[in-house]
Amino acid sequence: MNGLLVTGTDTGVGKTVVAAGLARLLHEAGYRVGVLKPVETGWEGPPGNWPPDARMLAEGARVDNPPEQVAPCVYAEPLAPLVAARRAGRPVDLERIEAAWRWLQDRDWVLVETAGGLSVPLTDTLDYASLAARWKLPVLVVSRPGLGTLNHTFLTVHYARSRGLPVVGVVLCGYPEQPDVAEQTNPAMIEEMCHVPVLGRVPRRPAITSADEAAAAVAEGLRLEAFLARYEELQQRVLHD
Ligand SMILES: Nc1ncnc2c1ncn2[C@@H]1O[C@H](COP(=O)(O)OP(=O)(O)OP(=O)(O)O)[C@@H](O)[C@H]1O
Ligand SMILES: [Mg+2]
């Protein structure tokens, strides 16, 4: 099984859009894809209903398992998992999350989406980087295309490396049709600063409200063959280190 942690430089950068779109591209290439949002916050629908990120991920991957398996741990307040958990008086249930992860082991690909960025805590002692290390997941960083992204992207890549996590690359989400100077120069500058490939520029659309729209945007901005080749190269390197 090939795993991937889809994280980002911030909340709202396009992690769900990129993960759902990539899941669809992998599905269409013939892979059996699983998706997991270990903790989803900011949703208080009844149990058995779909929280929005989990729904888009599942529709992207075309999986038909129940919402509890895609989003095993949900909180109403739109906060970092540890903060939401403390305020709700209900710790993040790592047993449930591990069970959901184990259930996905027969897939060819499993995409895991963080809530917020890599250093966001789930418990007193575990952040998303720890989860990626525990599950041996390389990291894909979703970033904004514009001014400010160099620092955010560098810090995220640097933190991943400091925790021993291989970084597959960066995907810029929301790349405009007419990029300004920062947007034009950022892809090459990210590669120069971070020593990772920019694997995609997902175009900015008026809105993306479904997995189909996410898939169409990701298909336009990311070449699956390039992603797969880079992933394979990184796995070989990790094996030989
Ligand atoms: N390329 C795009 N063009 C237009 N809208 C986009 C694009 N990418 C993302 N969006 C929109 O931006 C918002 C945030 O995107 P998304 O939910 O994927 O971010 P996220 O990083 O997963 O956020 P969270 O931290 O809440 O999980 C959503 O409303 C989404 O539809
Ligand atoms: Mg999301």
UniProtKB/TrEMBL annotation:
GO cellular component: cytosol
Binding site for Mg(2+): 16, 53, 113
Residues noted as binding substrate in the record, renumbered to the chain: 41
Keyword Heme among UniProt keywords: no
InterPro entries assigned to the protein according to its UniProt record, in alphabetical order: DTB_synth_BioD (IPR004472), P-loop_NTPase (IPR027417)
Keywords tagged on the record: ATP-binding, Biotin biosynthesis, Cytoplasm, Ligase, Magnesium, Metal-binding, Nucleotide-binding
A molecular-function term among this protein's GO annotations: magnesium ion binding
Designated name of the protein: ATP-dependent dethiobiotin synthetase BioD
Annotated organism of origin: Rhodothermus marinus (strain ATCC 43812 / DSM 4252 / R-10)
Lineage: Bacteria, Pseudomonadati, Rhodothermota, Rhodothermia, Rhodothermales
